[in-house]
Each structure stands twice: as structure tokens, then as C-alpha cells.
Write a structure and sequence with these properties.
This protein has nine helices and 16 strands. By secondary structure, it is an alpha+beta fold. The strands form four sheets. The chain has a five-stranded antiparallel sheet, sandwiched between helices. A four-stranded parallel sheet has the order 2-1-6-7, sandwiched between helices. It has a four-stranded antiparallel sheet with strand order 8-11-9-10, sandwiched between helices. ATP binds at residues 141, 178-179, 187, 211-213.
Length: 301
Amino acid sequence: MKIAMLARNPDLYSHKRLKEAAEERGHQLDIINTLRCYMNIASRRPEIFYNGSKLEGYDAVIPRIGASITFYGLAVLRQFEMMGVYPLNESVAIGRSRDKLRSMQLLARDGIGLPVTTFAHDPKMTEEVLKTAGGAPVVIKLLEGTQGIGVVLADTERSAKSVIEAFRGANVNILVQEFIKEAGGTDIRAFVVGGKVIASMKRVGAPGEFRSNLHRGGSAEMIRISPEERSTAIRAAKSMGLNVCGVDMLRSNHGPVVMEVNSSPGLQGMEMATGIDVAGKIIDFLMKNAQAGKTKTKGKG
């Protein structure tokens, strides 16, 4: 099997592991810098060019598209799909997961547990927004943030109002969510591949840090999740239409609540914490499922 991986940095742990896992199984995996691709859109036969050469003969494509280049990355991935190349995750599904507001609406539609989440355009609605979210403390998130960037914990009504009004004054879109105090600065990431949770870990925030992202100094350990948490992760992945994703959940007093569904989850923290060959399971999924032209979008919305 010949696999293309859309990734800008070939030296990242996740990208090296996926390449190793593919080659161990006798496949060819080429790491292609997404931003160096260009496309012939209007041709009857869609084409992608890379460093002056036409890309052809690929059986599958693994999108590892950074959040900062989502728009262009999804355009390149759509072109691969139009060429009949099987995507690990489809462009429409990645687009859903990258839009925090849309993803929350889809998860809510499908009855998946979420923290109380509010969204408004008018800064004059600040008091009503805070009231709906259950009052301070609240978590304020930029719609475009990743890896904990653009996430603020406002401890008091006064600080919450100041942060919300500052963001809205700068015309920045935000979500305001209830703060799940009982989670105690920890969360769970369940790694879903092909509709099954293949690994899970608990992430603990650094001292004095409410965000548990490993990029922010958090630590991780293997955890056994409950049947309800497993079901929630699988349903969240299905709701987005993602074959492979990391589902981040908090343990609240009313059951697991989903914070985010990540369409390009890092492998290092999960593999180190659990000892599970996550990269190998991803390549095995491609081996079983990659078929030419099998690019129909799953899910709705």
C-alpha cells in the first residue's frame, strides 16, 4: 500500500511513529508538506502537484493538518478525496471537529454529555451568558484555540465580564462553559480508532494549572475507563464522522462530559502512558479499510 501523510514536520514523534509502523508492515509512507502542494482544480481528472511533480498512485492519505492551516489543508485533502484516495479522516469530519461551536452543537444534537455551553454575539448579553453557564467560575474559550491556547478560567463574575467584554470588543468569537470543579484539573483522553477505544489515559494539570494539556506541563498515566465513558467517546467520534480521534472528557457529578474531539491527536503521550502501539493500530485500520473511491462523507451536519 502506498500512503501519503499530509504533515509539515516529519520529525514530530507522531509522524515518525506512523511512518515506522507503515514501513514495518511493508507499506510505503511519504510525508508531504501540505503547504507545498498545489492543485489543478478545473481538470476533469483532479490533480495534485508537489515540488513540481504530480502526486499519483496513492491508496490512502493520513491528514495531520495543523490548526493554523486548516483551510488550505482541507482543500488539499478534498482534492485527494476527489482523486479517489481513501482518507483516514474525511475533510468534512475534520472541518466539523475544528469548529468548536459546530462540534458542540452536533454533540448536543446526538445527546452526548457536555458542560453547559453558551454563545452570544452581543457583549451586552454578558450577564445573561454568565447566568446561563451557572455563574462564575466559568471557562472562556476561543473558537479557534488548540492545545489549551485561548482558554481562560475566570474565577469571579467581575473577571468573567472583563474577559468576555474584552474578547467581544476585539470581535473575537468565544464560548463560555461551566467550570467542572469536581474534575480537579484532570481529564481523560480516549483514543478512538475505527469505532473502538484502543487506549485511554488520565491527564493531570501542572501545579496551579487548570488545563491538563501535556503541552502545558501536564502529566499522563494509563487509566481504565467506565463503560459509560467508553460509549461516550465512541458516540462522539461517530457524531463527528471521524475514524481516528482523541476524545477529551471530564468526570462530572452528572457523568462524563466531552470537552473536545481532536481529529489529529498526538501519539506520544498516549503511547508513553499506556505502552500501546497506537500508530500500528492506525495503520492496521487503513490496511483493512482503504479502498479506491471509498470517500463518502459519514454523519450529518
